Amino acid sequence: MEIKADARKYQEIECDALVIGVFEGESVTEGLLAELDHQSAGAIGSLFETGEFTGKSGESAYLVGASGLKARRLLLLGAGKADEADTNLLRKLAGTATRTLRGKKAKSITFLHRTEKNLATDAQAITEGALLSLFEPDKYHTSNKTESLLETLLITAGGAGSEEIARGIERGRIIAEATNFGREVINEPANILTPTELAHRAWGMAKEYGLRIDVIEEQGMKELGMGALLGVSQGSAEPAKLIVLTYTPEQESNETIAIVGKAVTFDTGGISIKPADGMEKMKYDMAGGATTIATMRAIAQLKPAVKVIGVIPATENMPGGKAQRPGDVVTAMTGKTIEVINTDAEGRLILADAVAYARQLGATRIVDLATLTGAVLIALGDVYVAAMGNDQSWIDTVIAAGRKAGEKFWQLPLDKEYREQIKSEIADIKNVGGRKAGTITGAWFIGEFVDDTPWVHLDIAGTAWNESTKPHLAIGPTGICVRTLVTLVCDQSGN
Ligand code: BES
Ligand code: ZN
Ligand code: ZN
C-alpha cells in the first residue's frame, strides 16, 4: 500500500473512504461535524441523536453516500476522550480504519488528521498504525487468505504541512516495514525457522540494506569459551549460530550501542521439559532475536550517527541424548561458572555469553531483550514490558524512548537482596532463583555478565505475542520493541 501526504481539503479528495476520528462529546452543530452533517444531508446529526455514535473509543459508523464529498464512503471512528489522546490513539485509529476498510474491499482511503501540531510525528504514527494493522499471520494458509485491495492511503491535515507529513510517512514506513519483517520471522514455525534459517534471513536482510554480518559457528563459540550458549545447544541436532550485525555510521561515533536478542527458535525446556499444553507457542521464543534483526533493518535505512551492533544468540532448546542435565556446571565466556538447575531457564544462559561477547566487541551501552520468564506475565500481563538494569539514567532513557514510540515499559527493582537467590553451593551462580521474583532473578543473572557497562534488560515474554485479533491488530507476533529501540538509537545520535 502506498501512503502519501495530500495537501487538498478533505472535501476535494476522491477516494473509496474518508476516515475521521471523532472525540466523545463533540458537537454536531459546529466545526467539522456540522460541515459533515451538512454534506451528508443530516446523516451525522441523526447518528448522534439516536446515540448510535457518540465518539466513545471502539465505536464506528460507516456511511454510504454523502453528496457533498468526493469520497464514496465515510468512516467515523470513536476516538474517546480528547484529553486522553496521544500518538498511540492515532496508531489505533489508523489501524482500525485500515483493517475495517480492507474488509470492505476499499482500494483508496484518506485519513483526515484534525490537528496541525506535530504533523511529522502524527503522520509517522498513522503510517505505522496502518501498515502494522495489515500484517496477517496467514502465510501457511492455502485458501481463504485475507485479501487486500488497498492501494493508497492519503493523509491530509486539511491542506497544512504536507512536507512534514511526508517526512513522518517515510520514517513510519521504514519502522513499520521493519517491524512486519520481524513479525513474519517470529511467526515462522520452528521446523522452518531453525537457527541456520534465522542466520540466513539475517544475512539476506544485511545484504539488502548494507549492514555487515558475521555468523559465528559452534567451533568459533568453543574457541571463544561460550560454554553457556553451547550447553543449551548441545541437546539439539540443529547447530547454534551467533549472529552479529554491525551498523557503522559515516560520522565518528564514540558510543557503540549493543542490542542483544534471545533467539531460541524452539524452547521445549530441554530435560526440564515443558508441559505439552501450549508448547507450540514456544516457537516465538526467538522474538528478541527477530526484533533485533528488524531493528537493525530500520537503522540501516535511517542512518543514525551512532554505531550499533545487534548480537543474536540463536539455538534450539531440545532434550536430545546429548542434552545438558539439571545439575551440570558450565563455564561462560567470562570464566564464571554456572550450575544449571533448570534447563528451561536457557534464555539467560545464552544471553550470558552474548552480552559478554557484545562487550568484547566494544559495546559501551547494552540493551538486551528476551522472552525470558513466564513470571513477567504474572507481574505485568500483556500490557507492559519489564525493564531492569544497572544504570538508572540508561533505564530512564530506554523507558522514555518507549513512551515516545508508544510502547509501555515498567521498571522492576534490581536490588542486591535478590542476588542471594541465584547463589550456588557448587558454582559461582545458578541459573534459577526459585519461585519468588522470577523476572528479577532472571535479569540479575544476565547482569552478572555485563560488568559495569550501562545495561538494560527487557523481558518481552508477556508482550511479544497478541493472544486475540483486535480491531487494529492481528493475532500473533506484535514486534514489540522495534519502535522503541529505533527511537532510542536515533535519539542517542540526535537524529
Ligand atoms: N521461554 C521461556 C519463557 C516464556 C514463558 C516465554 C512464557 C513466553 C511465554 C523461558 O525460557 C522459560 O522457560 N523460563 C522459565 C524460567 C524458570 C525455569 C526459572 C519460566 O519462566 O518458567
Ligand atoms: Zn525455557
Ligand atoms: Zn525460553
Written account of the structure:
- With 495 residues, the protein is α/β, with parallel strands linked by helices.
- It folds into two domains: 2-137 and 148-175, Leucine Aminopeptidase, subunit E, domain 1 (3-Layer(aba) Sandwich), CATH 3.40.220; 189-493, 3-Layer(aba) Sandwich (Aminopeptidase).
- It contains 14 helices and 20 strands.
- The strands form four sheets. Strands 7, 8, 9, 10, 11, 14, 15, 16 and 18 form a nine-stranded mixed sheet that branches. A six-stranded mixed sheet has the order 1-6-5-2-4-3.
- Helix 4 (119-133) links the parallel strand 5 and strand 6 (152-156).
- The structure holds ligand BES and zinc ion (2 copies).
- One zinc ion (ZN) binds next to strand 10.
- Tell me, briefly, the overall form: elongated
Q: Which molecules are bound in this entry?
A: ligand BES, zinc ion
Main beta sheet: 9 strands, mixed
The secondary structure category is alpha/beta
**What's the CATH architecture of the largest domain?**
3-Layer(aba) Sandwich
Average pLDDT, rounded to a whole number, is: 97
CATH superfamily of the largest domain: Zn peptidases
The total tally of domains equals 2
The count of DSSP E runs of length 2 or more, i.e. the number of strands, is 20
Helix proportion: 25-40%
What count of helical segments does DSSP give?
Answer: 14
Task: Name the CATH class of the largest domain.
Answer: Alpha Beta
Instruction: State the end-to-end CA separation.
Output: 27 Å
CATH topology of the largest domain: Aminopeptidase
Amount of beta strand:
15-25%
Low-confidence stretches: none
Gyration radius from CA atoms, angstroms: 24 Å
